[in-house]
Amino acid sequence: MTESRKSQTPGRCPLRGRRILVTRAADQASALSDALAARGAEPVVIPTIQIVAPASYAGLDRAIADLGETDYLVLTSVNAVEFFFQRLSTLGYDAASLDRVKIVAVGPKSAAALSAHGLQADLVPDDYRAEGIVAMLREQVSGKRVLYPRAALARELIPAELTRAGAEVVAPTAYTSVLPEDAPGKLGRALADGLDLLTFTASSTVDNFTGLLDTNTLDLARKVPVASIGPLTTATAKKHGFNVIIEADNATLDDMVEAITRHFAQQ
C-alpha cells in the first residue's frame, strides 16, 4: 500500500481494502473503476462484454437517409450515441440533419455524450430506463416517426409500447456485443485471489459473466455478493443465482457507487 493511501482517513476511504470487480466494456470501465478507487477500493477491471459494430449497417443507413421524415430520435445508452453519430458522419451528414428532430436521451450520461457532438437532449425521463422513456413519450408520439438505434439484443419494450401508442418506430441495430476472449482466465484468477463484491451495470454483463465461467468457477462466483445498477440487472443476476445485496436508487453509475459506499460504511 502506498504512503499516500496510508495517510488517508477511513472517512475519506470508505471502501479501503475492498476488491471490487468491474465488468463493464473496456472503453467504459474507467468511469466506475476510477470512482471506486477514489473511495479507497481496489477495482479489478475484467470486461465481460466487448462492444462492436453490427454485421450490417443497412438498416441504420436507411433510417439516417430518412431523417427528414423523423420526429424523435431515442438514444438509450452512450454506445447508442457514439455508434449513431459515427455512422451519421461516415454517411456525410452532420448535426444540422437533426434540426427538426426531438432528441431523447435515457439519462444524464447519454445526454452528456450527446453534448460532445454539439447537441442537447430535448427530453430526458425522470426514470433512467426504457420504461421511463415509454412513460414520457406515450402521449406524444401518435402519428409520429420514432428512430430508435439500438443494441442487437435490446429489449422490445420501446418499439412495442410506442407502436401501441400509435407511433411508427424504426429500430435498426447500431451496435452489438461479443465475449472478450481473455476474460475466462482473468475471472478465474480474480475469484481465486478473492473479491469482496461483483458489480453489474447491465443484464448483458451478467449473462456474459455467467457464460464465461465453468461450473466450478461459477459456483465460486455465486458466493461473492453483487451490486446492481437497477431492477432489471438485479432480476437477471438473481435468475443466475447471484446474491444481490446492493442496488442503485437510480440507474446511474454515480448512484451505484453511492449505494456501494453506504453499504460498506455500515459494516
Task: Name the features.
alpha/beta, Rossmann fold, 12 helices, five-stranded parallel sheet, four-stranded parallel sheet, 2 domains, 41% helix, disordered N terminus, elongated, 267 residues
Structure in words:
It is a single chain. By secondary structure, the protein is α/β, with parallel strands linked by helices. The chain has two domains: 134 residues, Rossmann fold, CATH 3.40.50.10090; 126 residues, Rossmann fold, CATH 3.40.50. It contains twelve helices and twelve strands. The strands form three sheets. It has a five-stranded parallel sheet with strand order 2-1-10-11-12, with helices on both faces. Strand 11, helix 11 and strand 12 form a beta-alpha-beta unit. Helix 4 packs parallel to helix 5 and helix 9 runs parallel beside helix 11. It is elongated.
Strand order of the largest sheet: 2-1-10-11-12
Quickly name the level 1 CATH class of the largest domain: Alpha Beta
How many helix segments?
A: 12
Distance between the termini: 22 Å
The count of DSSP E runs of length 2 or more, i.e. the number of strands, is: 12
Strand content: 15-25%
Query: Overall pLDDT, averaged?
Result: 93
Helix/strand order, N-terminal first: HEHEEHEHEHHEEHEEHEHHEHEH
